[in-house]
Write a structure and sequence with these properties.
With 238 residues, the chain is α/β, with parallel strands linked by helices. It contains 8 helices and 12 strands. A hairpin with a 2-residue loop joins strand 6 and strand 7. Bound molecules: calcium ion. Calcium ion binds next to loops.
């Protein structure tokens, strides 16, 4: 089935260019030129992905992103921005965009990023039979993107959730920061390994009993990180 992509971009030439090249991939493309009408379209539930410009007249891209994230259905967002500082880049990911592209960007890169996000979403939804992971006290509900520890619900940002979901689905396997960037953040984030560290630290602060002595998200010195294997998996209990 053809993917449906919403493009929210006020610069008509860029919007047109993006529209043409995404359509070339066989995807259905809808364009909106301001935040309010873009948000209305995004809320329709018809779309598989949103390409969202940060600087928009009226309701800006950050606000659109926040409101899309506040909705119950998960809608992937690729953010476009003219700002290029690293801080803004990290901020864009922090507020819940799935990926981030700085203008001017190449159309090939845009298409590659969109494909990567769609592939990731498909991979996540293909895991339907394991949509609930129980890891000791921790329960990860993949469909509802909810995490509870004991009785308590834990609030995670979109990326923290992706990171945990990825880890938790592969307990015991060691990943380097570069691999985590690749799998969780997607294509083209080379050089942003510190982003992984900061997300790991925040995730630990939220899910570990003692973030200073993590028992779930473990550091493998000189290599990266891994999610703890279930107790007794290789030690026969105790
Ligand atoms: Ca703009």
């Amino acid at each position: 089935m053809s993917k449906k992509i919403l493009v929210i971009e006020d610069e008509r030439e860029i919007a047109r260019l993006v529209e043409i090249h995404l359509r070339d991939q066989g995807w259905e493309v809808t364009v909106r030129n301001d935040g309010a009408s873009g948000l209305a379209a995004a809320s329709s539930g018809r779309f598989d992905l949103v390409v969202l410009d940060l600087m928009l007249p009226g309701v800006d891209g950050l606000e659109v992103c926040r409101r899309i994230r506040a909705a119950s259905d998960y809608l992937p967002i690729l953010m476009l921005t003219a700002r290029s500082s690293e801080l803004d880049r990290v901020l864009g990911l922090e507020i819940g965009a799935d990926d981030y592209l700085t203008k001017p960007f190449s159309v090939r890169e845009l298409v590659a990023r969109v494909k990567a996000i769609l592939r990731r979403e498909e991979a996540l939804s293909d895991r339907a039979p394991e949509s609930r992971l129980e890891l000791g006290e921790l329960t990860v509900d993949m469909d509802r993107r909810q995490v509870t520890k004991g009785e308590q619900e834990i609030e995670l940002t979109a990326k923290e959730f992706d990171l945990l979901a990825f880890f938790a689905a592969h307990p015991g396997r060691v990943y380097s920061r570069a691999e985590l960037l690749d799998h969780v953040w997607g294509y083209g984030h080379g050089g942003y390994e510190h982003t992984v560290n900061s997300h790991i630290n925040r995730l630990r602060a939220k899910i570990e009993d003692d973030p200073g002595k993590p028992e779930l998200v473990l550091t493998v010195w000189g290599v990266g990180y891994k999610f703890a294997e279930p107790a007794g998996a290789d030690e026969g209990g105790s």
